[in-house]
Amino acid sequence: MIKSPKTPSESSVEMREMVMPNHTNPQNTVFGGTVMSWIDIAAAMVAARHCGKPVVTAHIDDIDFIAPIKVGYHVLIQASLNYVGKTSMIVGVKVTSENPYTGEVRTTTKAYLTFVALDDLGKPIEVPGLKAETEDEIRRFENAKKRVQMKKDVRSALQNKK
Q: What are the boundaries of each domain within the chain?
């Protein structure tokens, strides 16, 4: 039975991390893979909260590393649902870092991930709809819808070249 549509705020997640030496490269900035892991975890929690089922990462649509994050900095990972298809969900994630000594905050990474909900047999299952209410939620929904269409167009164009 499909649950009623939910708003993005009902499933959004915020996580915090502190960059430790074991997270960093020789430049004392965090490894991109570590940030990607944090992003994937936060996004998976959003998707699971939305559908109430186990989820798997199906696709990372886009990830932009905008600025480095130094050892000792505090990291805020904010994730929210942007779009829902029949069995899939697109989660947008924004990562910001804070220098705890100066208070400087800056956006460091942005990403969009697609998750699929699974039934008890590990097969894709239909998910609740998304009820975008605020201007920001509606904008994110419309942008994600365009992203889905662009992905379909690219896939179609590449298949036609075979």
A: 8-160
Assigned CATH class of 8-160: alpha beta
Can you name the residues that pair with 14 across neighbouring β-strands? 78
What does the alpha-carbon distance between residue 13 and residue 143 come to, in Å, rounded to a whole number?
Answer: 20
Asked whether the CA dihedral 94, 97, 98, 100 is positive or negative, the reply is: positive
CA distance 20 to 78: 20
Please tell me the pTM assigned to this model.
0.92
Q: What tens digit of pLDDT does each residue of 43-60 get?
A: 999 999 999 999 999 999
- DSSP string spanning 115-162? EEEB-TTS-B-----B---SHHHHHHHHHHHHHHHHHHHHHHHHHHT-
